[in-house]
TrEMBL record:
<dbReference type="InterPro" id="IPR012337">
    <property type="entry name" value="RNaseH-like_sf"/>
</dbReference>
<dbReference type="InterPro" id="IPR053151">
    <property type="entry name" value="RNase_H-like"/>
</dbReference>
<dbReference type="InterPro" id="IPR036397">
    <property type="entry name" value="RNaseH_sf"/>
</dbReference>
<dbReference type="GO" id="GO:0004523">
    <property type="term" value="F:RNA-DNA hybrid ribonuclease activity"/>
</dbReference>
<dbReference type="InterPro" id="IPR044730">
    <property type="entry name" value="RNase_H-like_dom_plant"/>
</dbReference>
<dbReference type="InterPro" id="IPR002156">
    <property type="entry name" value="RNaseH_domain"/>
</dbReference>
<dbReference type="Pfam" id="PF13456">
    <property type="entry name" value="RVT_3"/>
</dbReference>
<feature type="domain" description="RNase H type-1">
    <location>
        <begin position="117"/>
        <end position="236"/>
    </location>
</feature>
<dbReference type="GO" id="GO:0003676">
    <property type="term" value="F:nucleic acid binding"/>
</dbReference>
<protein>
    <recommendedName>
        <fullName>RNase H type-1 domain-containing protein</fullName>
    </recommendedName>
</protein>
């Protein structure tokens, strides 16, 4: 999602392109008009095509490119080379790396802290969203968990509701130091934005209000492979009951995932068995 679209939906306050910081980050800006991107295009286009190429609106521009087989093949090859060059010359990035040589696992909180993991799923057949979460101690032991049917909302909104209800449950249990782990990077950036309290989305304002209560909170991004327990409890949500369900003890179906050893070899084993997914999973209900 572009920054311009995020601002339109009330998910951000800054629409500028993060690469050039000169123009709003629209779709056509990302694909063609950004100074960094346009330099690449000018190197690949015939001089006779440059003027028309940069004057078309988005639909006509896409149609032109789809109608040129030679251009598609050439741009694809050059794009791969360009990506490799950018990756090699700019190793640091705020986004999670596609390559990871370290073990992907649940990370325990600091001493005296507890860890809240949250997740949300969307029913592929119904479009209903469900949120779930688990609070664990430093040793990974179950302290409490919850899930709730949210309704028909976007995946990002469902993730935000999961954070909100997780904070409510943690506050009701009297926890004073809370480390929140989410595998939704957009959500983490949105909630950690200093302007989150003034966001257009009421749910973001509500989360900011809870975070400002008398406790210590840290919100971080994690790989989805480290969020397996929260994902599992979200999938247990009944599709007919909108009541918040709190689990003082781990449900039988979750106990197995609490005991999964998080070592590099076993992570690869369980990934091969289908327990992990790179993309956000859809649940069929």
């Amino acid at each position: 999602m572009t920054n311009l679209e995020r601002v339109r939906r009330g998910l951000a306050s800054n629409s500028l392109c993060p690469l050039c910081n000169a123009h709003p980050e629209s779709t056509i800006h990302v694909l063609r008009d950004c100074q960094i991107v346009s330099t690449f295009w000018r190197q690949k286009l015939l001089s006779s095509h440059v003027q028309s190429f940069f004057s078309w609106d988005l639909p006509d521009w896409i149609q032109f490119n789809l109608g040129s087989k030679e251009m598609i093949e050439d741009v694809l090859c050059q794009s791969l080379a360009w990506t490799a060059h950018i990756t090699a010359t700019n190793p640091s990035s705020d986004a999670p790396s596609a390559r990871c040589s370290t073990a992907i696992m649940w990370t325990p909180p600091p001493i005296t802290w507890v860890c809240l993991n949250t997740d949300a799923i969307v029913g592929a057949n119904t479009g209903l969203s469900c949120a779930g979460g688990v609070i664990r101690n430093r040793e990974g032991g179950w302290l409490t968990g919850f899930n709730k049917l949210i309704g028909i909302v976007s995946p990002t909104h469902a993730e935000l509701w999961a954070i909100y209800y997780g904070l409510q449950v943690a506050w009701d249990h009297g926890f004073e130091s809370l480390k929140i782990q989410s595998n939704n990077l957009q959500e983490v950036h949105l909630l950690n934005d200093p302007a989150a309290a003034n966001a257009d989305l009421p749910i973001v304002q509500a989360i900011s209000s809870l975070r400002n209560c008398c406790w210590m909170i840290e919100l971080i991004w994690i790989h989805c492979e480290g969020n397996l327990v929260a994902d599992s409890i979200a999938k247990m949500t009944p599709a007919v009951n909108y009541m918040l369900q709190v689990f003082p003890e781990a449900p039988t179906a979750i106990v197995y995932f609490l005991e999964v050893p998080h070592t590099p070899s076993l992570v690869q084993k369980y990934k091969a068995l289908g327990f992990f997914s790179i993309k956000k999973k859809l649940t069929f209900f």
